[in-house]
TrEMBL record:
Belongs to the methylmalonyl-CoA epimerase family. It is an enzyme of class 5 (isomerase). PROSITE patterns: VOC. Residues 4-138 form the VOC domain. One of its GO terms (molecular function) is methylmalonyl-CoA epimerase activity. GO terms for biological process: L-methylmalonyl-CoA metabolic process. The gene is mce. The keyword Isomerase applies. Keywords: Isomerase, Metal-binding. Pfam families: Glyoxalase_4. This is Methylmalonyl-CoA epimerase. The keyword Glycoprotein does not apply.
Amino acid sequence: MLTRIDHIGIACFDLDATVEFYRATYGFEVHHSEINEEQGVREAMLRINGTDDGAASYLQLLQPIREDSPVGKWLAKNGEGVHHIAFGTADVDADSEGIRDKGVRVLYDKPRRGSMDSRITFLHPKDCHGVLTEIVTAASAQAPGD
Ligand code: CMX
Ligand code: CO
């Protein structure tokens, strides 16, 4: 079951400048940052609030590390802005299979590694009324050994 908004993914040209905007304007601090080679991004997670299932909600600021990555291609076409939304669940495997059974294209056969050792998959934006949609199980919400 999808229980919360895990994060909103925002594409930017300059991660450091964008982080500084969110800090100076709203007071949001970087909770975590990493490079995800597979996804082709440098990213910063700004924690917005905690929720009662043990995980939180974030803004995910994304700068591409390759022009031919999803975020690189999207930025070249659209400029900066909201790139995707992500719903949180305790079981990304079951939920993405259930969504696939409804005829929505799920982009990965098996969930892949996302920010902070979460497990993630994506739904095709053309099947979701134009919204690239990510499904996430946070590391803290995974059963031990998963
Ligand atoms: N939101 C809405 N629509 C989008 C989109 C987005 N983020 N990205 C692409 N599209 C649309 C395009 O506008 C295009 O539509 P038109 O044909 O009407 O012009 C169509 O989808 C195809 O786009 P494309 O530029 O040709 O891009 P691709 O098909 O090569 O890739 C997608 C699209 C969704 C398969 C790819 O972006 C993808 O695999 N995304 C998932 C991975 C990802 O986004 N990783 C970065 C984030 C990592 C993280 O969150 O941790
Ligand atoms: Co994301």
